[in-house]
Design a protein that fits this description.
Two copies of one chain form a homodimer. With about 140 residues, chain A is α+β, with helices and mostly antiparallel strands. In chain A, about 40% of the residues lie in helices and about 20% in strands. Chain A has one domain (about 5-140): Winged helix-like DNA-binding domain superfamily/Winged helix DNA-binding domain (Arc Repressor Mutant, subunit A). The first copy, chain A, has helices spanning about 5-15, 20-30, 40-45, 55-65, 110-120, 135-140, and strands spanning about 70-75, 80-85, 90-95, 100-105, 125-135. Chain A has a three-stranded mixed β-sheet. In chain A, strands 1-2 form a two-stranded antiparallel ribbon. The interface between A and B is large, with 36 and 35 residues. Strand 5 of chain A pairs antiparallel with strand 5 (about 125-135) of chain B. Chain B binds a DNA duplex (25 and 25 nucleotides) through helix 2 and helix 4.
Chain lengths: ~140, ~140
Amino acid sequence: MTDFDTLAGQWRAEGHKLTQPRRAILKTLLAAARPLSPAEILERGQTFYADLGLVTVYRTLEILEAMGLARPVHLADGCHGYALSTPGHTHHVVCDRCHAVVEIVGCALGDFLDSVAERTGYTITGHWLEISGLCPECQQK
Amino acid sequence: MTDFDTLAGQWRAEGHKLTQPRRAILKTLLAAARPLSPAEILERGQTFYADLGLVTVYRTLEILEAMGLARPVHLADGCHGYALSTPGHTHHVVCDRCHAVVEIVGCALGDFLDSVAERTGYTITGHWLEISGLCPECQQK
DNA sequence: ATGAGTGCAAACCGTTTGCAATCGG
DNA sequence: CCGATTGCAAACGGTTTGCACTCAT
């Protein structure tokens, strides 16, 4: 997670303009505790900039994803939401009930992937791990 | 992977009728070397039963998924295909180039998940791992 | 015979695109 | 000022639903 100014800096560094709609989207993602669908980003973003449109949400997410600043997270229902990502390789743990998300920054799969490569003959180029569970809060209910 | 008769047996055991369209879909999935999109299943399935309709593909996949006999596999482009799955817990290794798929039957993530649970306070209920790479054949090109 | 299963067409929903108006640098 | 960016409306593609007909049992 980064703060707004750092994010804004990276944004401009790529030559993108920092418009009001885009500010609203960045703030929304920064404030989110779980991955948000485009529609949710729209709704929340409108509290920052009332005229925000869904199309702009899609276009901004596209840029964020290309920059590696946000990534799509597959949710249980088949749709996917977007969450800001720390740079580099991360995995997510998503709460089944409230969808709160925690990023796992380290990746302990190296040995496992080596054995997979050996067993299958594949050259491994990447992997995607998503863990589901119940967050501490939801366990109490 | 199972053979047709075993699959058909499980199918009937749940009280579903084994119609021509459904036979065609099962045969198609059995013959597939990689996950297929609903549209691909339709196309290939029509070689077994010419009047097969797309709606039936969706409805049959829904049942197969509920029975745990097939599972959706997220492909690189965001769409997802379906592949028959061995019962129980498996992971997939998908070739970036030709989409050939290998199932990893063992799961060596236990320790890793334990440490995640400890670090995050979550109760882990499940996980989804998909590995991408190049299959032996595609490496030679 | 009879209810489960089917295909068609239409509805539906999330996403993308064309375009004229607008905004940021 | 000028091109990047915007929102709207319409197009689009994949998925789901309503319905009358058909098939497996």
